[in-house]
Amino acid sequence: MSRIFKEKSKTIPISKQMVWEAFKKVKKNKGGSGVDGISLEQFEVNLEDNLYKLWNRLSSGSYFPPAVKQVKIPKGNGESRILGIPTIADRIGQQVVKTLLEPRLEAIFDDSSYGYRPMKSSHQALYEVRKNVRQYAWVIDLDISKFFDTVNHKKLLKALELHVEEGWMTMYIQRWLEAEKLELSSGIRKANKRGTPQGGVISPLLANLYLHYGFDKWFRIHYPKLPFVRYADDAIIHCGTEEEAKEVLQKINKRLKDCDLELHPEKTKIVYCKDYRRKLKKKKVQFDFLGFSFRPMSKPSKRGGMFLGYGESVSTSKYQQMIKEIRDTRFHKWSTASISDIAELLNPKIRGWMHYYEKFRKMSLKGVFRNLHNRLIKWVLNRYKRFKGSKREGAEYLRKVKKAYPYLFYHWSVDYPFV
Q1: Alpha-carbon distance 131 to 219, whole Å?
Q2: Strands in 217-343 per DSSP E
Q3: Are 263 and 256 spatial neighbours (Cβ–Cβ below 8 Å)?
Q4: Are 191 and 182 spatial neighbours (Cβ–Cβ below 8 Å)?
Q5: 241 φ, ψ (degrees, to nearest 5)
Q6: Which of 4-13, 56-65, 337-346 is predicted least confidently?
Q7: Which of 26-30, 77-81, 87-91, 238-242 is predicted with the least confidence, judged by mean pLDDT?
Q8: What is the C-alpha separation between 402 and 380, in angstroms, rounded?
Q9: Cα(271)–Cα(138) distance, rounded to whole angstroms?
Q10: Which of 61, 122, 221, 411 is 20 to 30 A (C-alpha) from 366?
Q11: What's the rounded Cα separation, in Å, for the pair 96 and 59?
Q12: Sign of the Cα pseudo-torsion (170, 174, 176, 177, in order)
């Protein structure tokens, strides 16, 4: 990196070291190419020139972001969301500003906001909800409709002015907010008059700022005794009675409309956290949050026997999504592949599932791995004709493989019942 450290900073105090550190973070987070089609690997071919050019434009105020590539991402429930993917260079530029801005905003953010924040996680949010449903009988399951697409730019910039004195920083953030959107399927470019691209490096930070003033701070002032847990645009609010929940939801609905936001009419609901202490007959007794379903369920008692508790398990939509990912590989038809090839394909998925779901709920993936093993048996029967289609012999073969190679599949080393 010879040349990039020779020049002095220009009008705007963005140093070459800041650009270099931002590049390392972007590289660590990976991600695809933007509208220019340049991948991280291609960007690194002329890394010194590319970073120098970016620094030169950022530090002189002449940087204008290219259009943001629009990609549809399935949500697993038949719906899809739009992911906006900036170019590699643009992500580096956003990271430079985010690194400067994030500590300021972190100092004012609410402790009950968990999404996209350093030292905060979805597991922490889930533990907090688990604790709260034991104390409060009612929940408002809050879902903001198309939040990232509807953020009001003027109101966001007004909130930003409270924490940013540097005109150049506000200027760049406004340019990123207003960058054109390019739909790849149609080739149509659209001006971005609302929203902040879900996929941009700085977007989650700006989204948290918008909801800090739009919801968190307002809620603390008006309902200081009620706990809530927010993760990005999803929030769980805990109430003592149904009447209280209805009143709070009505006030929240009005508040969000004042912020140019709308609640999703179907996904937002009031839920009764029914357990052995709570006897009311209510239809809505389940809500989903961060991949888990909170609902009434039988739990073992310390004194023996079972009791009706209120707890969490993998949500139906996430369970079906994992099953679909296994099914879509179609590995059971790989008649010439080895079982090691299948393990190499599936282990990254299995590792990710277990690290997320097992950390919060032990043995929560039994059904998923049962489905996987049944599909492995199909592969055995297709691969080895000597078993003559016998599922019993195919299952026995898998047991022998597991005994001989207990770490072949990531989950085999864990105490899961082997099917």
Answers
A1: 20
A2: 228-231, 234-239, 269-272, 287-289, 292-300, 306-314
A3: yes
A4: no
A5: -135, 165
A6: 4-13
A7: 77-81
A8: 13
A9: 6
A10: 122
A11: 11
A12: positive
Q: What is the DSSP string of 40-76?
A: HHHHHHTHHHHHHHHHHHHHHT-----PEEEEEEE-S
The pLDDT tens digits for 158-217 are: 999 999 999 999 999 999 999 998 877 666 777 788 999 888 999 999 999 999 999 999
To the nearest 10°, report the CA torsion of 11, 14, 17, 20: -120
- Kind and range of the H or E run holding 105: helix 88-106
CA 411/CA 64 separation, integer angstroms: 48
For residues 136 and 305, what is the distance between their CA atoms, to the nearest angstrom? 25
- Alpha helix (H) residue ranges in 216-333: 217-222, 242-258, 316-329
**pLDDT digit string (tens) for 378-396?**
999 999 989 888 999 999 9
Strands 68-74 and 181-183: parallel
Q: How many CA atoms lie within 13 Å of 214's alpha carbon, on the beta-carbon side?
A: 28
Q: How far apart are CA 71 and CA 123, in angstroms?
A: 28
Question: 124 near 231, Cβ under 8 Å?
Answer: no
Q: Rounded to two decimals, what is the model's pTM?
A: 0.90
CB 192 within 8 A of CB 179: yes
Tell me which of 274 and 413 has the higher pLDDT.
Answer: 274
Cα angle at 296 between 294 and 298, to 5 degrees? 120
> What are the angstrom distances between the C-alpha of 167 and each of 55, 59, 159, 308?
18, 13, 14, 58
- Asked if the model's pLDDT at residue 1 lies above 60, the reply is no
What are the beta bridge partners of residue 71?
Answer: 83
Q: Residue 46: count other Cβ atoms within 10 Å of its Cβ.
A: 12
What mean pLDDT is reported for the chain?
92
pLDDT over 90, % of the chain:
82
Question: Which residues lie closer than 8 Å to 234 by C-beta, 6 or more apart?
Answer: 115, 142, 143, 144, 289, 290
The pair of structure tokens assigned to 316 is 């139906």
The token pair at 270 is 């009031």
Report yes or no: 155 and 260 within 8 Å, Cβ to Cβ. yes
Instruction: Say whether 237 sits in a helix, a strand or coil.
Output: strand
Distance (Å, rounded) from C-alpha 133 to C-alpha 113? 18
In angstroms, the CA 89 to CA 93 distance is 6
Closest CA to 264 of 154, 140, 110: 140
Cβ contact 354:365 at 8 Å: yes
Tokens (6 digits) for 284? 């809505």
